[in-house]
Amino acid sequence: MKRSGTLRLLSDLSAFGGAARLRELLAGDSAVRVRGSPDGRHLLLLRPPGAVAPQLLVASRGPGAELERAWPAGQPSPLDAFFLPWPARPALVLVWESGLAEVWGAGVGPGWRLLQSTELCPGGGARVVAVAALRGRLVWCEERQARAEGPSGSPAAAFSHCVCVRTLEPSGEASTSLGRTHVLLHHCPAFGLLASCRQLFLVPTATTWPGVAHVLLIWSPGKGKVMVVAPRLGLSYSKSLNPGRGDTWDFRTLLRGLPGLLSPREPLAVHTWAPTPQGLLLLDFGGTVSLVQSHGGTRAVGTLQEAPVGPWGSAALGTLQGTLACVLGSTLELLDMGSGQLLERKVLSTDRVHLLEPPAPGMEDEEELETRGNLRLLSALGLFCVGWEAPQGVELPSTKDLVFEEACGYYQRRSLRGAQLTPEELRHSSTFRAPQALASILQGHLPPSALLTMLRTELRDYRGLEQLKAQLVAGDDEEAGWTELAEQEVARLLRTELIGDQLAQLNTVFQAFPTAAWGATLRALQLQLDGNGKLRSQAPPDVWKKVLGGITAGKEPPNGILPPFELLCQCLCQLEPRWLPPFVELAQQQGGPGWGAGGPGLPLYRRALAVLGEEGTRPEALELELLLSSGRPKAVLQAVGQLVQKEQWDRALDAGLALGPSSPLLRSEIFKLLLAEFAQHRRLDAHLPLLCRLCPPELAPAELLLLLRTYLPDEVGPPTPFPEPGAEPPLTVGLLKALLEQTGAQGWLSGPVLSPYEDILWDPSTPPPTPPRDL
């Protein structure tokens, strides 16, 4: 059955700050770039370089100041601007042709403020020609001194570009974290960059060398792969491209190694490109729309009723729920992507219409949830949405149904009877009154109360979860959908009592989606690195209590089901082993009585070691770090003993010196352990100054000599002035002098002289008295 679309006005833009300027820019310039924020609350309008008056306007719906900047003639203006998908606060990045990048954020003070400014091309002599933002990464194409490589128009000048990437993540409340620059492609032509939620598309431009203008690339960072595609030739090849492993490609070498790609071919004649979750849409000058899929295959989607009017005519493409939308001038056409059939054709009242991307799943506000699944159009007249009937079989349950279904599962878990509880029984039984009261409140039979206010966030999450499930059933953007579903499920489970089914479900999610599950845990615990490289957490104590809780007697989980803390340690061992010791150290600081950290039972470092395996099979470096960072005397002594066996004297001494005045006994035990090694062999002599610093201040020279006598090896024969060849040199007074001076100085300053010969140490220039000679 043919679906019919309806055009509905969502806002006349009066709810946005700076509405007058917003309407003026939308009505006055058809070339203005328009982007919506991931939460749908902000609109970005940019007049790019070359416009009569380059200008930037960021308008916000509801409270919040707008950001407006203008650049006079002759002054460089931004090449492009993008919103960043940061959940904590709205943020955007501006990039100039010179390589200057500015990150702006809102929500950390009054209005928008500059968070960071950096140079993408610090060496100078480079020019940014295209830029894109891709899920925590900034990717740009830069031209590097083309004139030095050859005259304009020559092959050397045409392949003088490179494509680079840097990670861009939030750090704390009012700062950002920029990773190091990694070059993806060397010696490539000028590429245009387009980003979808999962992939980056490198497409030819008008200045691309004609011999390779029929080739485009699809980079998938999550898979560490790049697809090289020639749509007109029907060829596609996959190559590894993972910056984390240091992968990089010379573009010319890459193409020469792929058969058939350099066959003579006409450049791609494309009027409009549009990235989508399904792949890259191409609209040619004849009105035909094609889709280059993420695996490299190309297929025709359909043909529009009318073709673009010349290369400068405006056109916009988008997809949602299996429908292609094309805004061509003042015409909106909706096509079924499966059959190419025209579903609807509408004539709009203006030819300056912009197609907005839908808000990111999970970041919409209440108003955006109402229009989820619809296309959004923006013009000077207002913000509109195009809605149509949902496909058969993808029906979202009502809020009332969700209440009874969720309550049914809750009561079933607590029930001891064997019969299955049904939502219908909950609706009519007088035993279960809570879900009936809540359903009545939501249905409007009772006046709103504080309960509805408290439950609004939970109900929105449940509704968003059901919509996400419907999206997965419809086969829309499956990989990102599964990842988001895993993150939402972990966040939900961390708010429940982690026993029984909930704990088993948490284990299942961590096994199937470890990266997504750890990312959700990272946000729940609010983990971040401070300036000293230490992990810090701002999560409330009740969250840590659930994570650190051990196994209660009588409630042991089945085999293979790990408690939350052990589950996190196992996940860190797989993803980031270097984070495990600081995480355990932080967990020990957070623990309270009975949480598994400060109460009875195994200490946390022992629980973490158990995850690493049996003793003797664990990674030695990781085990040592866990023991040293535990702060437990037995663990630290065990670690120092292992370091002594490996003859890693520096680390053993540093472990003792790192202990503060609050651990004098442990420090003294480490000193005695190392003193025994010092008495038996000479491999510790080079580290004698550190051993002197470790010496306990209360140790007297006489006590030191008694300790040394205990540790000295037994003599097997009469003493000789020189050691036997190949034998270990014995301990001498010269080596012992530094330690005696250390203890002597401390003893002199702290109390009376304990020995009549101790004052000799204070005046080494005075010889002892000469004994009388027999005449």
Which helices and strands occur, and which strands form pairs?
Elements: E1 6-11, H1 19-28, E2 33-36, E3 42-46, E4 55-60, E5 67-70, E6 78-84, E7 91-96, E8 100-106, E9 112-119, E10 126-133, E11 137-144, H2 146-149, H3 155-158, E12 161-171, E13 175-178, E14 182-188, E15 191-195, E16 200-204, E17 216-220, E18 225-230, E19 235-240, E20 249-250, H4 251-256, E21 270-276, E22 279-284, E23 288-293, E24 298-303, E25 315-320, E26 323-328, E27 331-336, E28 342-347, E29 354-356, H5 366-370, E30 375-379, E31 382-387, H6 399-414, H7 423-428, H8 433-443, H9 450-473, H10 478-493, H11 501-512, H12 514-525, E32 527-529, E33 535-537, H13 541-548, H14 564-575, H15 580-590, H16 604-612, H17 620-629, H18 633-645, H19 649-657, H20 664-680, H21 688-694, H22 701-711, H23 733-750
Parallel strand pairs: 14-20
Antiparallel strand pairs: 1-31, 2-3, 3-4, 4-5, 6-7, 7-8, 8-9, 10-11, 11-12, 12-13, 12-14, 15-16, 16-17, 17-18, 18-19, 21-22, 22-23, 23-24, 25-26, 26-27, 27-28, 29-30, 30-31, 32-33
Helix pairs in contact: 6-8, 9-10, 10-11, 10-12, 11-12, 14-16, 15-17, 17-18, 18-19, 18-20, 19-20, 19-21, 20-22
**Parts with pLDDT < 50 across at least 5 consecutive residues:** 747-764
Mean pLDDT, as a whole number?
78
* Intertermini distance: 133 Å
| Cα-atom radius of gyration | 35 Å
Q: How many alpha or pi helices? A: 23
Taken from the alpha-carbon principal axes, the silhouette is: globular
What is the helical fraction, as a range of percent? 25-40%
Q: What summary fits the major beta sheet?
A: 6 strands, mixed
Beta-strand level of the residues, as a percent range?
A: 15-25%
Structural class: alpha+beta
Number of strands: 33
